[in-house]
Design brief:
The termini are far apart. Helix content is about 50%, strand content about 10%. It has a 3-stranded antiparallel beta sheet with strand order 1-3-2. It is built from 4 helices and 3 strands. It has one domain (about 5-85): Arc Repressor Mutant, subunit A (Orthogonal Bundle). It is mainly alpha-helical. The chain has helices at about 5, 15-35, 50-60, 85, and strands at about 35-40, 65, 80.
Length: about 90
């Protein structure tokens, strides 16, 4: 079962940093072109839980906001948006 606190450590390994950067690039593209996206739209090489951890990390750092509670949906169905657009 996915646990952000457990998976977060994987983001700071050499392969995790690469995956985080790839996720961030895709997030920027999707936000710029669609304004929001679901977690399932992120497609990068690597572990799917590390991808979810990368999205959660971007939320934690204030670069994204989740539009649903985690308890309402699985990670691939979570909707993300830019805090700049969502809080406007």
């Amino acid at each position: 079962m996915y646990n952000y606190e457990t998976e977060k450590a994987n983001l700071f390994t050499p392969s995790g940093v690469k995956q985080l950067m790839e996720v961030r690039d895709q997030v920027k593209y999707l936000i710029d072109n669609a304004g929001a996206f679901t977690g399932g739209k992120i497609s990068v090489a690597g572990d799917s839980w590390t991808t979810l951890a990368a999205l959660d990390y971007l939320v934690e750092e204030g670069e994204l906001v989740k539009l649903r509670k985690d308890s309402e949906c699985w990670g691939q169905y979570q909707v993300y948006a830019s805090p700049k657009v969502y809080n406007s």
